[in-house]
């Protein structure tokens, strides 16, 4: 009896772990579908649309780097819950396309994983939920301490900063951040 029980228990544990992993991936996939729908509805109506009723955030923009096929829905705020589902627009920074610096932050191993492939000169496109479209050119990148980003909140031009943890392949958090800076080059309504 114990010989038969051990493989069954191990199989059951394996099935539970597999199911748990599949559930997490399914939830992440569904969240992205709901975020895309909420963003599309915001574009159509001009209203703030939450992706699900209990969400503490909502889509404010779509970021794309077409050269590498990267796209992500940007959410309002950078709470832990918001960053679990996408990049966040840091509070009290400019909106994309406005005078000042718009700052978006995300996790290095999920929604901003693509930053490792963005090069100086690449075009970063932002579509806001109000339908306005902006093109930025990446003009510099730097690795900085979290408390010394070098971001100038009083910038007179329209600038964009994408920030994430550094290094990209680390498994633990650290004090360094990767900061990609871009300057507005085109606006379309």
Automatic annotation (TrEMBL):
Cited Pfam families: Sortase
**Which domain of life does the protein's organism represent?**
Bacteria
What the entry lists under InterPro entries is as follows:
Sortase (IPR005754), Sortase_D_1 (IPR041999), Sortase_dom-sf (IPR023365), Sortase_proteobact_type (IPR022445)
| Gene3D superfamilies xrefs | Sortase
Question: Which controlled-vocabulary keywords does the entry list?
Answer: Hydrolase
Gene Ontology molecular function = hydrolase activity
Q: What is this protein called?
A: Sortase A
What is the scientific name of the source organism?
A: Bradyrhizobium shewense
